[in-house]
Design brief:
Blueprint (H helix, E strand, L loop, with lengths): L3 E5 L4 E6 L10 H16 L5 E6 L10 H6 L5 H19 L5 E5 L3 E2 L1 H7 L3 E5 L6 E2 L13 H9 L1 H10 L2 E2 L1 H7 L4 E3 L5 H11 L26 H18 L4 H13 L4 H16 L2 H18 L15 E5 L3 H12 L3 E5 L3 H20 L5 H9 L1 E4 L8 E6 L5 H11 L3 E9 L6 H4 L9 E6 L8 E6 L5 H13 L3 E6 L6 H17 L4 H10 L6 H8 L1 H14 L9 H14 L11 E3 L5 E3 L2 H6 L8 H21 L6 H12 L10 H6 L1 H15 L7 H9 L5
Parallel strand pairs: 2-3, 3-4, 4-6, 5-7, 6-9, 10-11, 10-13, 11-12, 13-14, 14-15, 16-17
Antiparallel strand pairs: 1-2, 7-8, 15-16, 18-19
The chain binds nicotinamide-adenine-dinucleotide.
Nicotinamide-adenine-dinucleotide binds next to helix 13, helix 16 and strand 15.
Length: 715
């Protein structure tokens, strides 16, 4: 029996209900067989009046089979291309049936799912927030190879289609209707199939209803084809603008643009063939492998709770205390209240706490102004945040998160003062960015309930939370912290305690290497340009200014007191530069008198002129590839060391943490996945070269040597 249920009614309308084995419908071998049989049957069907495509799953259709895409290897391109031809052929035959075909979209239709819809004459969707439409392939290093590029260009025109293809923009049914991507929305899911059938009956005798726009005589692409003067201008600029964005590191957007332009230039069938070649090219690139591995499989693993202890009942946090209403505390209060959690926001005075609450008000007002929230909902969210200076208001909190100054004595003091207000078995979380959790927990009467909950700034925008287990943190505490993080809709990675945990420690190596290059005499502009050239959002010197040289100096003083300075390697070169900058020249960073850069009122920045005098040596010429590799390999090596020593508990946590928390270039799929496609042995060899020339910090970690010799990828 087919996994596509085939039912013909008295009016001659066939409803095809897709119900593949497994939780979702996906474009795999099972789909290909079912679709082939269905199309054969429809072509033979006597008295056929129309076809409705429906889904028996919650998600209408999930898209391409990513296991299959991951398995595509150089050498089997011809086979892959052939498979795409088969898929496209069936969709083309479907849209050429002499009767109308309607997609009745009851759930998300993304990627391949939306491509099936595009091959239907009429698309109607249930107006519900679970229904998302779009072609997100580019975000996985791919392109829509089931006709998505070609049909979107023919449907919307090049200019309107490009954001969907190049950015993978997803839309709701109402938005899709406004864009012309679908034809109708229905308020109730029960009405979907009946309405689809009614539309077919209403259009009986209307021959055009069964012919796709692009198959109609005289079809013209909206906005003109690639040779129209307006588009020619856009197309002249587009590749350069795209390259500026991708820095030449992401092949997918460039390929998408190529295929889209061809779709606006060539006949449909030729354009479809070019689109298949485009996807075949991309499917075997390391970038696609990296992005699929991490953004799909890794992220699902992490969000699905792979790092959450098993067998502990899910916990819903109802009341959270946030200590410190500064930059981080106010953000934590906002995201908690947005998730419907009651928040006690405490600072040293009522005024300071109220200022912290005002931050939420500002963010919420923006949402209301943009029509994304009602005034009533805003008041409801604000009503959940109680600003206070009284410890006793914390009574009954099931979670307290402290975000006071980064000072161990202060953190110890407030732990002692307020821990007692927690509900039975309540959890204490510290948002410290560097201090070891085990040492912070020394002030606690219940170290089993003590954990690190490390947010990233700005809290409302950054999707990651790094959960840090101290030596005594219990599984139950970890499970609760994990559940809270999911409750506020963030992605939790779980790591073991260590100075700087995973993210801060790894990120620090990028900054350190940038400053080392400076002290070796490299041109400061070139250093930051090399950081961007490997795909980092900002160069190391510019980031250092943002992080603040002043704060780094203070943190180092604390580490010295704690006897952990240079625990992860010799930081003396950077320390000397920082000390010179701050002590001699008062350059503490962007918000502390300027740093490596000079900042102008209008937001612009230029290198601080004195920096050239202090460090730049024009006669020094460091090879550009070496500079790039040094900036990339340092955090990669540090991530591997974290994995080797158990700071990282899983590869997925390391990859997701590096991408979402510290801006690892997306093309790498994260700092550990990078090694898989760079080549295990090649990585070890390159580490050896860099170590010989620039120092032992580049020596390949043992775990990399072991994987290189066994050939086992990091998974
Ligand atoms: P901040 O200086 O903006 O805010 C600290 C707040 O704590 C101030 O409002 C202060 O009045 C308040 N405070 C001090 N003592 C208090 C007490 N006894 N009781 C209640 N409140 C008190 O600092 P921040 O940037 O929000 O950082 C807070 C913590 O978060 C630090 O541990 C920091 O390392 C960590 N962190 C910061 C970032 C970041 O990017 N800024 C990122 C992650 C973690």
């Amino acid at each position: 029996m087919s996994v596509f249920k085939y039912e013909k009614d008295a009016n001659g309308i066939v409803t095809v209900t897709m119900d593949q084995t497994g939780p979702v419908n996906a474009m795999n071998e099972e789909y290909r067989v079912a679709m082939a049989e269905t199309v054969d049957k429809l072509e033979q069907e006597e008295g056929l009046a129309g076809v409705v495509f429906a889904s028996a799953k919650k998600v209408f259709f999930a898209g391409g089979d990513l296991h299959e895409l991951l398995a595509a290897e150089p050498g089997n391109e011809a086979q892959f291309m052939d498979m795409l031809r088969q898929v496209k052929d069936k969709l083309r035959r479907l849209e050429k049936l002499p009767v109308p075909v309607v997609a009745a979209i009851n759930g998300a239709a993304l990627g391949g799912g939306f491509e099936i819809c595009l091959a239907c004459n009429y698309r109607l969707a249930w107006d519900d927030k679970s229904v998302q439409l779009g072609l997100p392939e580019v975000t996985l290093g791919l392109l829509p190879g089931g006709g998505g590029v070609v049909r979107m260009v023919n449907l919307l025109g090049l200019e309107k289609a490009l954001p969907y293809l190049l950015e993978g923009k997803k839309v709701t049914p109402v938005e899709a209707l406004a864009e012309g991507m679908i034809h109708e929305v229905v308020p109730s899911i029960e009405d979907l199939v009946p309405r689809a059938k009614a539309w077919i009956l209403e259009n009986k005798g209307n021959a055009e209803a069964a012919v796709q726009l692009w198959d109609r005589k005289g079809h013209r692409i909206p906005g003109g084809d690639a040779s129209s003067p307006k588009l020619a201008q856009l197309l002249m600029m587009a590749p350069a603008m795209l390259r500026q964005k991708t820095r030449g590191l992401l092949p997918a957007p460039e390929k998408v643009l190529d295929c889209a332009v061809e779709a606006a230039r060539l006949d449909l069938d030729t354009a479809l063939e070019i689109e298949s070649a485009g996807l075949t090219y991309l499917a075997v690139t390391p970038q696609a492998k990296n992005m699929i591995s991490t953004f799909f499989f890794g992220l699902n693993k992490v969000n699905g709770g792979a790092s959450r202890p098993q067998g502990i009942a899910p916990y819903t946090t109802k009341k959270v205390g946030v200590l410190g209403a500064g930059m981080m505390g106010q953000g934590i209060a906002y995201v908690s209240a947005m998730a419907g959690i009651e928040v006690i926001l405490k600072d040293i005075s009522e005024e300071a706490a109220a200022r912290g609450k005002a931050y939420s008000e500002k963010l919420l007002q923006k949402r209301v102004a943009r029509g994304r929230m009602s005034e009533e909902k805003m008041q409801q969210v604000l009503g959940l945040i109680k600003p206070t200076a009284q410890d006793s208001d914390l009574t009954g909190c099931d979670l307290i998160i402290e975000a006071v100054f980064e000072n161990i004595e202060l953190k110890h003091k407030i732990t002692k003062a307020t821990e007692g207000y927690l509900a039975d078995n309540g959890v204490w979380g510290s948002n410290t960015s560097t201090l070891p959790i085990t040492q912070l927990a020394e002030a606690s009467g219940k170290p089993g309930n003590f954990i690190g909950i490390h947010f990233f700034s700005p809290v409302d925008k950054m999707p990651l939370v790094e959960i840090i287990c101290g030596e005594q943190t219990s599984d139950e505490t970890l499970a609760r912290a994990f559940d809270y993080t999911r409750q506020i809709r963030k992605t939790p990675i779980v790591v073991n305690d260590s100075l700087g945990f995973f993210t801060s420690r790894t990120f620090g190596t990028y900054l350190d290497e940038g400053v080392r290059l400076l002290s070796e005499g490299a041109h400061p502009v070139q250093i930051d340009a090399m950081g961007k050239a490997i795909g980092m959002p900002v160069g190391p010197l510019a980031v250092y200014d943002e992080v603040s040289l002043e704060l780094t100096r203070k943190a180092q003083a604390t580490w010295k007191e704690m006897g952990v300075l240079d625990k992860w390697g010799d930081g003396s070169i950077t320390r000397e530069v920082i000390n010179t900058m701050v002590e001699q020249y008062g350059r503490g960073g962007r918000h502390h008198g300027g740093g490596f850069y000079e900042y102008s009122e209008d937001g612009g920045k230029t290198i601080w002129a004195k920096l050239y005098e202090l460090y730049y040596q024009p006669e020094v010429a460091i090879d550009e590839q070496d500079m790039k590799d040094r900036l990339l390999f340092r955090p990669v090596i540090e991530s591997l060391k974290c994995l080797q020593t158990g700071v990282l508990r899983s590869v997925a946590d390391g990859n997701i943490g590096s991408i979402m928390g510290i801006g690892a270039p997306v093309w790498t799929g994260g700092y550990i996945q990078f090694v898989n496609t760079y080549g295990l042995q090649r990585f070890v060899d390159r580490c050896g070269e860099l170590a010989a020339q620039y120092g032992e910090r580049f020596a390949a970690p043992q775990i990399a040597v072991e994987h290189a010799s066994s050939g086992e990828l990091f998974n």
